[in-house]
Write a structure and sequence with these properties.
The chain is mostly helical. The chain has 2 domains: 4-111, no CATH class; 130-258, no CATH class. The protein has helices at 4-16, 20-28, 38-60, 62-68, 70-83, 98-103, 114-128, 142-145, 168-177, 182-191, 215-223, 228-233, 240-249, and strands at residues 151-155, 160-162, 197-202, 205-210, 253-258. The strands form 2 sheets. It has a 3-stranded antiparallel beta sheet with strand order 2-3-4, with helices on both faces. Strand 3 (197-202) and strand 4 form a beta hairpin.
């Protein structure tokens, strides 16, 4: 006879098993005393799980949902739910593996830019909950008085970069902010215009824009713990005098500190 713990574990496994016929067969062996047709209850639980999966992913992957359309996105959410079930009670932390799942999906191979869209949207999602950090712009005076070999830049919460062979920034911004026009994005997709992306949080607002030439190299160096001078040496294409005011104004750079000072985790 199955114990209650056995029945609960069987139900949990059946909720994520696929196809449904196999899930019902799994549950039948533990269904003594709960009726002759446990599959009916199982279908109800699975339907609730599918709706939860769709809502949870839609909260993160709004652009992806627009690109796929409602039915295809719902189908994707259900398939992902069964292949990568949540491992935590908080479903807001579930969904990171979606980009890889899409990349391996035979049905989505005709839209090879979708995994990059998913990676960018997950970065924005994680950025929203990154630990807050106060700006101290007065410390930027160190850039005029100290050796850049001894300085680091304090960077925004959640800062990360993504490299893409597709017009990733245009895709995200067209659907999130309405610019550029979708017709222009379609031309960029056809021409396979590569765009790298910077994601960060300004105040409480996750932000995204196309990276400037050399910016990904600089930020990657800074995020790895390099001091300013070697990070700049690794980014010869970047015009630092143009980039720094833009980075400060947009909240990407919050200040400066000495290289031996504590380095905060940014992603």
């Amino acid at each position: 006879m199955s114990t209650l713990a056995d029945q609960q574990q069987a139900l949990l496994e059946a909720l994520f098993a696929w196809p449904p016929q196999e899930a019902a067969a799994q549950l039948q062996a533990h269904a003594t005393g709960v009726g002759a047709h446990p599959q009916r209850g199982l279908r109800a639980y699975q339907a609730n799980g599918h709706m939860l999966a769709e809502r949870a992913l839609l909260a993160v992957y709004a652009v992806l949902a627009q690109l796929l359309g409602p039915q295809s996105f719902a189908d994707l959410a259900r398939a992902f739910w069964h292949c990568h079930p949540p491992l935590r009670g908080d479903v807001a932390q579930w969904g990171e593996a979606l980009a890889g799942f899409i990349a391996n999906s035979a049905q989505l191979q005709d839209a090879p830019y979708l995994p990059d869209v998913a990676r960018a949207e997950w970065a924005l999602h994680r950025c929203a909950t990154a630990a807050n950090r106060d700006a101290d712009l007065g410390t930027l005076v160190l850039l005029t008085t100290q050796d850049p070999q001894t300085l680091r830049l304090a960077l925004a919460p959640g800062l990360t970069t993504l490299c893409s062979a597709w017009p990733l920034a245009s895709l995200l911004l067209a659907h999130r902010e309405g610019q550029p026009a979708l017709a222009d994005v379609a031309v960029q997709l056809q021409d396979r215009v590569a765009q790298d992306v910077v994601v960060w949080r300004a105040g409480l607002q996750p932000r995204l824009r196309q990276a400037l030439p050399g910016e990904v190299a600089l930020l990657s160096g800074l995020l790895s713990g390099l001091a300013l001078e070697p990070a700049l040496d690794a980014a010869p294409a970047l015009d630092f005098s143009h980039w720094l005011p833009l980075a400060v104004q947009s909240g990407l750079v919050l200040g400066a500190n000495h290289a031996e000072s504590q380095v905060f985790e940014t992603r």
